Amino acid sequence: MSEIHNYNQSRPSSTRGSDYVWQYEYYDDDEPVSFEGLKAHRYSIVIGFWVGLAVFVVFMFFILTLLTKTGAPHQENPEPCEKRHRLGNCVVDIHCPQGDSLADEDKAFSRPLLDESRSFFYISKEKQGRGGGCGPHRVRGSLGGRSSFGLEEMGEAGEASERGDGGIDLQGLPEEGKSEREHSFLSHHFDIPNFVNSEHSSMTGEDDLLLCEPPALLDSQSCVQDGHHVIS
Amino acid sequence: MNDVSALPSNHTDCQVVKVPHLVFLVLGMVSLSENLLVVVAVVRNKNLHSPMYMFICSLATFNTISSLSKTWETLMMEFSDVGQLDSRGDSVRRVDDIIDALLCMSFIGCICSFLAIAVDRYVTIFHALRYHNIMTTRRAAAALAGIWALCGVAGAVMVAFCDATVIKIFFIVLFLISLLLILFLYVHMFLLARSHARKIAALPGSAMPHRSLRGALTLTMLFGVFVVCWAPFFLHLLLLMVCVENPYCECYRSLFQLNLVLLMSHAVVDPAIYAFRSAELRNTFRKMLFCSDSPLCYKVKALFH
C-alpha cells in the first residue's frame, strides 16, 4: 500500500501540486471499498432502513388507532377513585345530594347501564360541579379531548384558554368570570339534564373558590397520578 | 457539506447520487418565504406574544437560518462549478465554515425548538390550572435565550472540531434523546386526551367516532414527518463513524444529497404542521398577505368568506 503511494509521489508531477492531489490519488488508486462478492443487494441497508421506517410509522399509527377504539381497560377503574379523592378534597358538600340525584339518573339511563352510568355520571357531575373553581383544569383537559381530539387542539387548548379567558392576561380575570364561562360552556356541550346543573350550580358558587385554591396543588399531583395510571 | 469523490465507474459500484442545484434552490426559497412569514406574523400581532407562539417563532427562525445557509451554499457551489469561484481559496473556505456552522446551529436549534413546543403543550394539558404561572413569558424568553446560546456555541464548536468523532456522537445522541422525549410527551398527552374523549363519548348524543382517528393521524404525522426527515441524515452520520469501509454502508452514504433534500423539505413542511394549525396565525397571514387596512380588504374578505 505504502509503496504505491511512494511511487505516485516520486513520479515527476510538474502539473500537479503535492498535498491536494495526493489525497485524490489515494482514493483513485487504493480503493478501500471493494464491491466484489457482495452477498446481498448493494442497496440493502437503504432498503432495509426505509422499509423499517415505514413499518414503524404505520405500526405507530395502528397502535394509536387501536388505543382510541378500545382504550386500555384499566384506565377507567382508577379514575373514578381518584375523582372521588379529588372531589373529597375539593368540595365536601357535593357528596350529600349524590344519593338523591343518583336515583334520578337511573331513570335517565336504562337499567343495564346502571353501574357504568353511575360512574360516568359521577365523573360528569364532577365536571359540572367543579366547573367553578377546580373545574378549569379538567375542563381544559376535556377541551383538548373533546374539541377534536386532534393534537392541534392541544396547541389550541392553550389558545382556548387565551380565547376563553379573553386574551393573554389570564391572571387579570376574576375567578368567577372564568368559572361561569366554563360552566356554561360545559353544560351547553355536555347536554346534561338540568336537574344536575341546578343542584350543583347553587351549591358550588363560592365554596369552590375558597376550598379549591389549596387543592389546586393536589389537583395537578393527582392528575399526574392519573396520567401515570393511564400510561401503566 | 460533505463531498464524497466519485469512484471509477463499475457496474457494481454505488455512484454518488447528485441532486440538481435547482432542487435545493427551490426548496430553500419556499422554506425561506414560509418561515419568514411565520416570524413576521408572530412579531407583528400582539396577541401572538405568548410562550406557545414564541416557541413556534423560534422554530421558524431556525428554519429560516437553515434555508438561507443552504441556499447560500448551493449558490456558491453553483458558482464554483461554473468556474466563477475558486473553491480552494482561503476566503471561500472560511465562508464555507461559517455556512456549516450556521447549518449545524439551525439543526440543533430545530430539535431544541421541537422539544420546547412539546414541553409547552405538555404543561398546557397536564398543568392547565397553573399553566400561566409555570410558563410565563419571561421564563419562555429565558429558555429561548438559553437555546439560542447553546445552539450558537454548539454550531461553532462542531465546525471547529468537525473531524472529531465525539461531535458526531454528540449529534446522534442529542437526536435520539430528543426523539424519545418528544415521543413520550406526545403519547402521554394523546392518552390523556383520549381518556377524556372516551368519557365524553359515553354520554348520550355526543359520539364522534371519526374524531378518534384524527388524533392518531395528527400525532403520527407530527412524529412521522420528524423521524422520516431527520433519521436518514443521522444514520448517515452513524455509518460514517461505524463502518467506513463496508460496501453496503458506502452505498447508503452515496445517497447523502437525497438525505439533505429530506432535511430541507422538513423545513418546508414544518410551518404546515406547527404554525398554520393555529387559527389566529392563519388570520394574521390573511390580513398581512391580502390587504392591510384598505377598502379592498373587505371585498377580498367577502370573496373568501
TrEMBL record, chain A:
One of its GO terms (cellular component) is perinuclear region of cytoplasm. It is found in: Cell membrane; Endoplasmic reticulum membrane. This is Melanocortin 2 receptor accessory protein 2b. GO terms for molecular function: corticotropin hormone receptor binding; signaling receptor regulator activity; type 1 melanocortin receptor binding; type 3 melanocortin receptor binding; type 4 melanocortin receptor binding; type 5 melanocortin receptor binding. Belongs to the MRAP family. The gene is LOC110529368. Signal peptide: none annotated. The keyword Cell wall biogenesis/degradation does not apply. Pfam families: MRAP. The lineage of its organism: Eukaryota, Metazoa, Chordata, Craniata, Vertebrata. Keywords: Cell membrane, Endoplasmic reticulum, Membrane, Transmembrane, Transmembrane helix. The keyword Membrane applies.
Automatic annotation (TrEMBL), chain B:
It is a multi-pass membrane protein. It is found in: Cell membrane. Keywords: Cell membrane, G-protein coupled receptor, Glycoprotein, Membrane, Receptor, Transducer, Transmembrane, Transmembrane helix. One of its GO terms (cellular component) is plasma membrane. The keyword NADP does not apply. Gene3D superfamilies: Rhodopsin 7-helix transmembrane proteins. The keyword Transmembrane applies. One of its GO terms (biological process) is regulation of gene expression. Residues 34-274 form the G-protein coupled receptors family 1 profile domain. This is Melanocyte-stimulating hormone receptor. It comes from Oncorhynchus mykiss (Rainbow trout). The lineage of its organism: Eukaryota, Metazoa, Chordata, Craniata, Vertebrata. The gene is MC2R.
